[in-house]
User: What shape does this take?
Amino acid sequence: MKAFVYGGPGKMSLEERPKPKIEQPGDAVVKVSKTTICGTDLHILKGDVATCTPGRILGHEGVGIVESVGSGVTTFKKGDHVLISCITSCGKCEYCRRQMYSHCATGGWILGNSIDGTQAEFVRIPHAETSLYPIPKGADEEAMVMLSDILPTGFECGVLNGKVAPGASVAIVGAGPIGLAALLTAQLYSPAEIIMIDLDDNRLAMARKFGATQTVNSSDGKAAAVVKALTDGKGVDTAIEAVGIAATFELCQLLVAPGGVIANIGVHGHKADLHLETLWSQNIAITTRLVDTATTPMLLKTVQAGKIDPTQLITHHFKLDQILDAYDTFGRAAETKALKVIIAND
Ligand SMILES: [Zn+2]
Ligand SMILES: [Zn+2]
Assistant: This one.
């Protein structure tokens, strides 16, 4: 089968690989029909993710058709249409019993990281019963791909951890796919203000289309003052960090109102300063989270009901044969205006 393989920092290729087989009774092998590229895949290609070693097939998002199942799998069978979660969970360990699937003792984020992933014709899914979701008849496959990772990530790490509430004010720093996923799902709670902050006017224009009430281009370094002016000097109840660098985390510390929450989503490769000299008395909370995908079934229903349309995030389409072009397009997002790219295998 064809597979996109990480070859070490800066190295990638589309290769011929053996089709995966059932290894454990709980496994399923899925024929991938659509997948996508995540910002995290770009981190891997830079060599930032030590657990992902050269030779690994990348990808932790996708949908497909069950090809075969192990002897322990009773809830899925060959031919079933399934959504692949970016998080693998056994459903039984201490963390799974607390719905912290991201920290599953024998799962978590392993797909396209410590085991081969979805950017291939076929993928092996361990703990299939608790790591796959049935796709309802008539569902839009491309919308379902957005449920593997970015919608639950924006929602759980940003909106739920950030305690977005009706009538509240929210600032989202970073209008990339994850920031926009937080913007889409924040609206489930009807906040009064959602202020989107980014360096890229094209992404800010998208954010306005997706429901941002205000947008701020932070390239002049004055974003904190602008947000204060927009909020009667108070700042925001929820500041969501959706970039993963020190500057944006530090900006969130300037934006948060007394009693507010800073909810970090970004993947940070370097340390960031924490200004306790100003924040110690502000009754704030700071949260971090690796997505658990505990809300995937609920988000699937909201998508099916038309409450959220995640297909708005899809800007480009490729075939698996063209995955190197897809990476090039996704990697130059400022020029290509790429958000999410769909890679089809049929
Ligand atoms: Zn991802
Ligand atoms: Zn577990």
In short: The domain at 2-149+295-344 is CATH 3.90.180.10 (Quinone Oxidoreductase; Chain A, domain 1). The mean pLDDT is 97. The first helix runs from residue 39 to 46.
